[in-house]
Design a protein that fits this description.
It comes from Ammoniphilus resinae. This protein has 8 helices and 7 strands; from the N terminus they run ββαβββββααααααα. By secondary structure, it is of the alpha+beta class.
Length: 250
């Protein structure tokens, strides 16, 4: 009988936010068309490490399993990406899984992405329509604007662009490329334009758009192919114009 093929994983684990990280190796039976999530589920069902010792199941996050929710972001073989679309057949082995280093680790591969949600609050990444629902339909967007706005709206707050950006770390307040792109999205919306200046102000403070080093890692790593560097260039121009206007109005 032929020996069953296996897949080896080396997973960086951490038992809690203040615990010391350590690496643990697992071997699981190979199946065609496996992705990283299905492999982690196999480890969860039978949490034995490669020495045969029973250990606590590996903790991770996932939801949609079709690269829409952004929950399963992690570093796979040195690159931040979505685990649900990382196919074992296309990964170099052993497969190395690590939590994203940009964010505080909660446990194993689970991180706290609160800094992303704080950034969205800072730039008011929403359209305030409270009390206006009875005013009838708003203005329609031209089709050409709607098409590229749809591309920007694909952002799933996954954190991959922040993990790839050299300007984002625990010593930097930089809000990251995803938030800058969201300002562009909402500031070009027919109704969102009403609060455009407030969002630009959110980009102009400490940790704002001037902290971008233009490495362009973000646009290369974004799993949704969002034109992040185009948004950054557009918002650089918009904040400059806004600053000039403020200077002459003061």
């Amino acid at each position: 009988m032929a020996e069953q093929k296996t897949v080896t994983f080396i997973i960086t684990r951490q038992d809690g936010p203040d615990a010391t990280p350590y690496k643990e190796e697992f071997k699981i039976p190979y199946r065609p068309n496996m992705n990283v999530i299905s492999a982690l589920m196999e480890i969860q069902r039978n949490p034995l490490n490669s020495t045969g010792k029973k250990v606590a199941p590996v903790n991770w996050e996932s939801n949609c399993l079709e690269e829409v929710c952004g929950a399963c972001s992690m570093v796979i073989n040195g690159k931040p990406r979505q685990a649900c679309t990382a196919l074992i057949d296309k990964l170099e082995q052993p497969v190395r899984l690590e939590p994203m280093s940009t964010f505080p680790v909660q446990r194993d591969l689970i991180v706290n992405r609160q800094r992303m949600f704080d950034a969205l609050k800072r730039v008011k990444a929403w359209i305030p329509i409270d009390g206006t629902h009875d005013l009838g339909p708003g203005p329609r967007m031209p089709e050409i604007d709607r098409q590229w706005a749809y591309e920007l709206s694909k952002c799933m707050t996954c954190g991959v662009c922040l993990e790839a950006c050299p300007n984002v770390n625990d010593k930097s307040p930089f809000i990251g490329p995803f938030a800058i792109s969201q300002v562009r999205l909402f500031n070009t919306h027919p109704t969102g334009k009403m609060n455009a200046d407030e969002r630009l102000e959110g980009l102009m403070g400490e940790g704002g758009i001037t902290d971008c080093g233009n490495s362009q890692n973000c646009v290369q790593s974004c799993p949704k192919g969002i034109p992040l560097t185009t948004s950054i260039a557009a918002m650089n121009r918009a904040t400059t114009i806004h600053s000039i206007k403020k200077f002459f109005q003061s």
